[in-house]
């Protein structure tokens, strides 16, 4: 697999050709930045997640060890100098001595034999060390080479064979990452075992596929789409090579639909939908983007380089990127379109003047936020009415208190109504109902509110040439309060019947409602103890309807 990286002709072309200069420079910078004196991984930091729910202190230190391994592996493979090989051997010795490859956040019991834990990180590291063994094994010291195989058997193969892992019953990125990289590891180092286990990996990938509705939407958003799909891509490429083309996931129609998800949900050249735990500024692994462009040609919109992430982890992504890289793939213009992804309840409308993205769905999705019925409005290549996305992960962010304790996943920070003083609820089993008729996107999302007086709640979004009309129709058994919520990073200017936010003007009947706003904080970085280190001001705008009767309407002028 990837034997071209052992070909002196290709390696010479890669090291000397102007075609590859940009990525050679990028990886050299990565190597120089990662080539630091490594600090010992401390148990005092490892145990912090179990004790106080904090994960950054250990993970940031651990990532330095991982990055040094990856960057020296790249330099050893491309340049082959003894200097780099010796550095790589030291990095391998270091990583093979790490007590557990998994992250503390994924180790269920700190007292267990947790070097057996197969999580996103341990499976990824396993595939990288397996690829080093496959491509550079003959250059590595025999004693270390033997230990590599022993550790991969102990930490990856045997644990996988011993039990069915929790991620084998998931339908999201965990399945593709863990199953994909476990499969690659076993395929490269223990091929006879892989042949026996292939039906199990087939079942894992079937479940990953089933996590996507028929229209290929990733309910976790573009960030997790990229993370999960590039891992699937790596496994699919490896399997295709391993079987000499007999097993090819890229021939399946659904693969193409999943591949097109990113471009279907772009709001502008540099603007993505940031639903769920997706950062607004998320970057996507360039290995995935270049491979899809190579595969689908003009059908695929190549995102701007501002949206590209240099593929460093795992090593196989680096090799896929180099293999698919073509500097002639310039960024493509984002064209006007209207896209309704019915099975997911997502709607995108891009026009010359603005774009709007809206979603139905449920509040029981992976990496869920309580955001059914919410929308994002983009203008001049930035979100104006926004979805702030994710906050840094801590332990209790993934517990039932997340919607009360944290702003980001709560409907408080999404563009959805507040009814009788209540935010949208996390009601498992509740769902919305969407349709697109005559240019109007409609969402029935009454089930998502734990308000017994509420008998009807339907939002209609009508995009026009220079404006968007939002109409919320409702019905109550008794009197009730109804407040529209709008969210922005820009402080609004409010006057009677008008709210000005950056380059948008929102107008409504001032005899029916009045507007106000409050400021909150979106946490973007945390300290080692989990407390907020860096935050951004976010403005929560409320339009209070005086005496809600049957509907309320406001207009977003673009």
How would you portray this structure in words?
- By secondary structure, the chain is α+β, with helices and mostly antiparallel strands.
- The protein is built from 16 helices and 21 strands.
- The strands form 5 sheets. An 8-stranded antiparallel beta sheet has the order 11-12-13-14-21-18-17-16, with no helix packed on it.
- It is elongated and about 80 Å long.
- 43% of the residues are buried.
Brief overview, please?
The chain is α+β, with helices and mostly antiparallel strands and 558 residues long.
Keywords, separated by commas or semicolons:
Beta-galactosidase, Chain A, domain 5; 558 residues; 5-stranded antiparallel beta sheet; 2 domains; Glycosyltransferase; 21 strands
Task: Describe how the helices and strands are arranged.
Blueprint: H1 8-16, H2 21-34, H3 43-46, H4 48-52, H5 56-79, H6 82-97, H7 120-136, H8 142-162, H9 173-189, H10 191-210, H11 222-242, H12 253-259, H13 261-264, E1 266-268, E2 271-272, E3 284-285, H14 286-296, E4 308-309, H15 315-324, E5 337-341, E6 346-350, E7 355-359, E8 375-378, E9 383-385, H16 402-405, E10 418-419, E11 433-437, E12 440-444, E13 454-463, E14 467-476, E15 482-488, E16 493-495, E17 498-501, E18 504-507, E19 513-526, E20 532-545, E21 551-557
Helix pairs in contact: 2-5, 5-6, 5-7, 6-8, 7-8, 7-9, 8-9, 9-10, 9-11, 14-15
């Amino acid at each position: 697999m990837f034997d071209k990286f052992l070909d002196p002709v290709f390696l010479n072309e890669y090291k000397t050709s102007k075609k590859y200069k940009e990525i050679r420079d990028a990886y050299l910078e990565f190597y120089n930045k990662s080539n630091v004196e490594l600090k010992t991984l401390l148990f005092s930091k490892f145990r912090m997640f179990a004790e106080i729910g904090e994960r950054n202190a250990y993970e940031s230190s651990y990532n330095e060890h991982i990055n040094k391994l990856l960057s020296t592996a790249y330099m050893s493979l491309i340049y082959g100098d003894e200097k780099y090989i010796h550095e790589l051997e030291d990095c391998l010795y270091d990583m093979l001595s790490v007590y557990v490859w998994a992250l503390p956040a994924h180790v269920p019991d700190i007292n267990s034999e947790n070097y057996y834990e197969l999580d996103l990180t341990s499976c990824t590291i396993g595939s990288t060390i397996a690829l080093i063994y496959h491509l550079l094994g003959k250059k590595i010291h025999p004693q270390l080479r033997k230990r590599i195989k022993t550790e991969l058997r102990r930490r990856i193969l045997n644990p996988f064979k011993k039990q069915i892992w929790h991620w084998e019953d998931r339908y999201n990125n965990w399945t593709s990452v863990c199953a994909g990289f476990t499969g690659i590891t076993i395929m490269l180092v223990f091929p006879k075992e892989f042949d026996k286990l292939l039906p199990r990996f087939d079942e894992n990938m079937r479940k990953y596929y089933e996590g996507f509705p028929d229209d290929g939407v990733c309910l976790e958003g573009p960030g997790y789409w990229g993370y999960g799909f590039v891992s699937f891509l790596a496994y699919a490429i490896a399997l295709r090579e391993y079987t000499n083309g007999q097993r090819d996931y890229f021939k399946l129609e659904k693969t193409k639909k999943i591949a097109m998800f990113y471009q279907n949900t772009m709001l502008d050249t540099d603007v993505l939908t940031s639903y769920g735990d997706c950062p607004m500024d998320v970057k996507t692994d360039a290995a995935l983007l270049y491979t899809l462009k190579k595969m689908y040609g003009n059908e695929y919109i190549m995102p701007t380089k501002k949206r590209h992430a240099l593929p460093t982890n795992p090593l196989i992504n680096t090799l896929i990127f180099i293999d698919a890289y073509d500097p002639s793939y310039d960024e493509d213009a984002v064209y006007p379109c209207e896209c309704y992804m019915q099975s997911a309840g997502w709607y995108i409308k891009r026009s010359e003047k603005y774009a709007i993205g809206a979603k139905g769905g449920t509040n029981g999705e992976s990496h869920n936020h309580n955001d059914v019925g919410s929308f994002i409005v983009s203008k001049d290549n930035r979100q104006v009415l926004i979805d702030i996305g994710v906050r840094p992960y801590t332990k209790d962010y993934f517990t039932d208190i997340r919607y009360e304790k944290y702003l980001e996943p709560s409907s408080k920070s999404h563009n959805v109504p507040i009814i009788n003083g209540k935010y949208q609820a996390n009601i498992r089993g509740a769902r919305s109902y969407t349709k697109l008729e005559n240019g109007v996107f409609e969402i029935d999302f009454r089930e998502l509110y734990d308000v017994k007086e509420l008998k009807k709640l339907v939002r209609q979004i009508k995009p026009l040439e220079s404006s968007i009309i939002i109409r919320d129709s409702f019905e109550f058994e008794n009197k009730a309060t109804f407040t529209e919520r709008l969210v922005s990073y820009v402080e609004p200017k409010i006057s009677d019947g008008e709210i000005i936010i950056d380059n948008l003007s929102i107008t409504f009947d001032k005899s029916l409602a009045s507007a106000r706003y409050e400021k909150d904080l979106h946490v973007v970085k945390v300290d080692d103890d989990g407390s907020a280190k860096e935050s951004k001001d976010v403005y929560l705008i409320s339009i209070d309807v005086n005496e809600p009767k049957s509907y309320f309407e406001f207009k977003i002028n673009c």
